[in-house]
Here is the input.
Amino acid sequence: MKHSFYLALAALLLTSCIKDEPQNMECDILEAWVEGDHLSQHFSQPTDMRISDIPSSSEHLAFSIRERATLPPLALHFQLTPGATISPADGSLQDFSKGPVTYTVTSEDGQWHRRYTVDFQETILPSSSYDFEDFELSSNGKYYVWYNKAGDGQKESIWASGNEGFMIAKPNAAATDYPTVPDENGYDGYCLRLTTRSTGSWGKTFRKPIAAGNFFLGTFDSRYALTNTLKTTNMGIAYTKEPVKVTGYYKYLPGDVFTDKDFKEVASRTDEPTIYAVLYLNHDEQGNEVMLHGDDVRTSRFAVREAEVAQLPATSEWQPFEMTFKGSTPIDAALLANRGYNLALVFSSSKTGDTFEGSVGSTLYIDKVEISFKSEE
Here is the structure.
């Protein structure tokens, strides 16, 4: 009798523990994909059928396709945070031929919701001219983001910055006090203003005392902001033409005091900016997707062309800059046409800001950037 009593009591306690366990409050899409070999004809690369490692800040997912008009109804599949549900349902057929479809993810506890717009966009060559006139506040209203206007009026998010990472260090900072902001005093209209900022007490604690103003073609992944900051920068987007040179205008004023990663003054050094670009293969020999980051974009074996502005002297007046791509590795024309190469283009107010060395207050202005391609020469 006692044995049965203790078994019943244990079962009751176990049930109580299960009931009391809090349900998951997260409601994110972690991965999205399309299945079926018969659908591969609509994509330039097999890896275009899947979007992985989706940052938690993303609200728009875009698959790249050859042609929207011929796209049949598709059944998308999703990996969600544990316990979350999605509507329309995973695997349900949706018509993307006329535009994006909105999905709503609900957390396991039912208290939280997130909406994602999922789109299938035609593969087009991004613009070769950038004036940085199109920007807006992020969805949380904390910092600025930039976009390009596509031919169909859709906003293309091809540019990124480290602003999202700075938000971790200075969550109460005004949008205008972030490292990368728009400035109305451009060479023509608005321009970029990249400023090396102090990360305050947070930065000193984590030995990341500064945040350089940076701006690059690609995406920012905040998941690595605390552990491996160089992995936060997913460098480059696909182009279908071979770049020859990049031109534009800049101004630069270095900060007064150069400091190392321990925020100690280095009297012998003066801060300087950097502008460089890398063209690289975005798949390996086995067809696996390749994405380069801040720690390997300059050294990877997949890089085939590189350009860098050799000198950027301090100046308070707009000055032109130009850099030419160099490299002897042959370019595969068919692979290039099928989006097999990524182009990374990077601007930073502190050249060694990736190792948290530089001068607080160093400011780089950028405007009227033009990429020239081989077929246009």
